[in-house]
């Protein structure tokens, strides 16, 4: 009998309904020693303020990511030729009813990757998970590209400072992000108070509401955003609710009149060549999805991010 040898690279020619459901059909990492970019799941939604279900996001995004192929049709980038990429699994939790303890689990997991020079590309989970990731990757205040319907710079909610509407306020307070090199794109939706918008703008963050994005166009937004973040270390966080619910209904806090999926892809491709320390896709909630379309959007965003991260890593 032929000896079993685990696959060392994704088999892009296997039927897309076959095999283990890993991110992009990449092999499961047996260690971090031979990994350049680690794809990880963060199945946690204990910091939500509205509709639950994002804890199931990583599993369904893995399923839908089997539809991804190797070569990007727009950029002709094949990330698997540029870097060693693997699914490093899900962050293990031991106190899911304690937000701060869970955040520490996330930080500790990602810190192991960073210590081995592995770039993390994660799938959440609610948006609170960006804070503990930043604690692991930001050895100095980093630039931030934040694509979202909400600024996520509100303060406490129901007594918690670590809810999913507050990660970038906490990150600013902790000196993890440079507000002068932070751009928030696609912001929209009525609020009962202007606290989050006000905090971002007063801290010096560049807030681009959706009306500005639509009026100026993606190319102009990308050009200014690249000027804002500069050439230093940058982290990109993509909330799926930045996309209009016509394209991505399965999320906790949907807001109408958002980005189209085409605009979302163009944004990410516009941020090629930056000095990335990591990226995330968050807030995919399969229980509210329709036909897997939100999970597919999340998987496609993750693939586009993988392409820009692989380019960045290969040129270092």
TrEMBL record:
Binds 2 manganese ions per subunit. It comes from the Bacteria. Keywords: Hydrolase, Manganese, Metal-binding. The keyword Hydrolase applies. One of its GO terms (biological process) is putrescine biosynthetic process from arginine, via agmatine. One of its GO terms (molecular function) is metal ion binding. Its cofactor is Mn(2+). Mn(2+) binds at residues 127, 148, 150, 152, 239, 241. InterPro entries: Agmatinase-rel (IPR005925), Ureohydrolase (IPR006035), Ureohydrolase_dom_sf (IPR023696), Ureohydrolase_Mn_BS (IPR020855). The keyword Magnesium does not apply. Belongs to the arginase family. Agmatinase subfamily. This is Agmatinase. It comes from Ruegeria halocynthiae. The lineage of its organism: Bacteria, Pseudomonadati, Pseudomonadota, Alphaproteobacteria, Rhodobacterales.
């Amino acid at each position: 009998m032929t000896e079993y040898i685990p696959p060392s690279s994704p088999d892009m020619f296997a039927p897309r309904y076959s095999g283990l459901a890993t991110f992009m059909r990449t092999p499961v990492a047996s260690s971090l020693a031979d990994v350049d970019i680690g794809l990880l799941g963060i199945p946690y939604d204990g910091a939500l303020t509205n509709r639950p279900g994002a804890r199931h996001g990583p599993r369904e995004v893995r399923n839908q990511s089997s539809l991804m192929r190797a070569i990007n049709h727009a950029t002709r980038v094949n990330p698997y030729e540029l870097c060693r990429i693997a699914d490093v699994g899900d962050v293990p939790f031991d106190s899911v009813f304690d937000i701060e303890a869970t955040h520490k689990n996330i930080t500790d997991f990602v810190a192991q990757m960073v210590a081995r020079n592995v770039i993390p590309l994660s799938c959440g989970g609610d948006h609170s998970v960006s804070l503990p990731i930043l604690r692991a990757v930001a050895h100095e205040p980093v630039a931030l590209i934040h694509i979202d319907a909400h600024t996520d710079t509100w303060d406490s909610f129901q007594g918690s400072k670590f809810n999913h509407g507050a990660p970038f306020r906490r990150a600013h307070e902790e000196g993890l992000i440079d507000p002068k090199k932070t751009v928030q794109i696609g912001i929209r939706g009525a609020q009962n108070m202007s606290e989050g918008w006000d905090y971002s703008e007063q801290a010096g963050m560049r807030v681009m509401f959706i009306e500005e994005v639509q009026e100026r166009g993606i190319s102009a937004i990308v050009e200014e955003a690249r000027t804002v973040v500069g050439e230093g270390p940058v982290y990109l966080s993509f909330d799926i609710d930045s996309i209009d619910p016509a394209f991505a209904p399965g999320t906790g806090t949907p807001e109408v009149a958002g980005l189209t999926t085409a605009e979302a892809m163009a944004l990410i491709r516009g941020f090629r060549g930056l000095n990335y320390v990591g990226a995330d896709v968050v807030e995919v909630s399969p229980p509210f999805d329709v036909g897997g379309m939100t999970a597919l959007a999340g998987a496609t965003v993750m693939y586009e991010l993988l392409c820009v991260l692989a380019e960045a890593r290969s040129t270092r």
